[in-house]
Amino acid sequence: MPNPLLADEMLPVLAQGAAADALDGYTVEEQVGFLLRRAHQRHAALFQETMAHLDLTPTQFTALIKVVELRRVTQNQLGRLVATDPATIQGVVQRLIARGLVGRTADPMDRRSAVLAPTLAGEDIAGRAVALARLVTCATLEPLAEAERSVFLRLLRKLA
């Protein structure tokens, strides 16, 4: 279904030179998308700096933690749980397997499905990564007062 907000007929036609009037106080730096992107950039930089020696991307980290948490999970289910499309989760899983952090076997109930399980090395890396992730979370939320942090996280979950 097309988004009615994006229909060409909804967009005002501006006379030449009227662009400044059309902005009517609109400031990009105060918009939700801009602010979310900036907050994400800050968090991603903190994550990369902190996790650099473990060589895990945020998506690999999330997938590995979920595999360790669940102990056994199909690749399809893992993709849904970590909100990642099938093509992306396939590449993520391949890299985790190549590093020896996750093992893959055929599902005895459905040979078309792959069942993933953590290896001992994967469990070790996951434990170290979670300790670092806690530091990343603290650093990300550091500008907020203690009371603001829980409110912010609650509202962020609501938006997500």
Account of the 3D structure:
- The protein is mainly alpha-helical and 160 residues long.
- The protein has a domain at 55-160: Winged helix-like DNA-binding domain superfamily/Winged helix DNA-binding domain (Arc Repressor Mutant, subunit A, Orthogonal Bundle).
- Helices cover 59% and strands 11% of the residues.
- The chain has 7 helices and 3 strands.
- The protein has helices spanning 19-23, 32-51, 58-70, 75-81, 86-98, 120-141, 146-159, and strands at 73-74, 102-107, 110-118.
- Strands 1-3-2 form a 3-stranded antiparallel beta sheet.
- Strand 2 (102-107) and strand 3 form a beta hairpin.
- The longest helix has 22 residues, at 120-141.
- The radius of gyration is 21 Å and the shape is extended.
- 17% of the residues are buried.
- The mean pLDDT is 89.
SSE arrangement:
Elements: H1 19-23, H2 32-51, H3 58-70, E1 73-74, H4 75-81, H5 86-98, E2 102-107, E3 110-118, H6 120-141, H7 146-159
Antiparallel strand pairs: 1-3, 2-3
Helix pairs in contact: 2-6, 3-5, 3-6, 4-5
